[in-house]
Amino acid sequence: MSQFFQVHPDNPQARLVRQAVDIIRAGGVIVYPTDSAYALGCQIGDKAALDRIRRIRRLEADHNFTLVCRDLSELATYARVDNTQYRLLRNNTPGPYTFILKATSEVPRRLMHAKRKTVGLRVPENNIAQALLADLGEPLMSVTLILPGDELPLIDPYEIRDTLEHDVDLVIDGGYCGMEPTSVIDLADDLPLVLRVGKGDVTPFEA
């Protein structure tokens, strides 16, 4: 049976954030809000939790997870960026974007694209997500909460709890956060490539 925390979207309660992080560190899988949609998250490198998320979403083994980071300094630990890429990132984070970047050796191999050695990273503009990341002190491995057979993410925390109460350890009710996915921008090569148009404005990345 999952726990259910109602966390204030503007002023997240430190006690609940700390309890959520304890659950993550203990190997838990959580549902948490971002600036685009609710997401499933777990601790980086936790293979058992990662496998649980794969089962919930029925994901193939080669599906790429996203590392959700607190800020650009954290992002730089896990991705190699040049000056041009860094300026694009600085001007567009935090925000509803997922960036595909060349991975560093800090990224667990199973999170990398097998051939390109890339990783998806994002910095969300959501107070609850930011509070979790600050307390955790490292990125969350995440995927958007879209259930098998659905085209759109779940948006109602109570419905999420009813649906996943035996599959996740915690559902964080952070209010409505939308159902539009992030825009996905590939920055791994010389020129930016828009792979998916979502919530974020893609104009800065178009040649």
Features:
207 residues, alpha/beta, DHBP synthase, eleven-stranded mixed sheet, 6 helices, 11 strands, globular
Q: Helices and strands in order, then pairings?
A:
Layout: E1 3-6, H1 14-25, E2 30-33, E3 38-43, H2 47-57, E4 66-68, H3 72-78, E5 79-80, H4 83-92, E6 97-103, E7 118-122, H5 127-136, E8 140-144, H6 157-164, E9 170-173, E10 183-186, E11 193-196
Parallel strand pairs: 1-9, 2-9, 4-7, 6-10
Antiparallel strand pairs: 2-3, 3-8, 4-8, 5-6, 6-7, 10-11
Describe, in plain words, how this protein is organized in 3D:
Helices cover 28% and strands 23% of the residues. It is globular and about 45 Å long. The protein is an alpha/beta fold. Strands 1, 2, 3, 4, 5, 6, 7, 8, 9, 10 and 11 form an 11-stranded mixed beta sheet that branches. It has one domain (3-202): DHBP synthase, CATH 3.90.870.
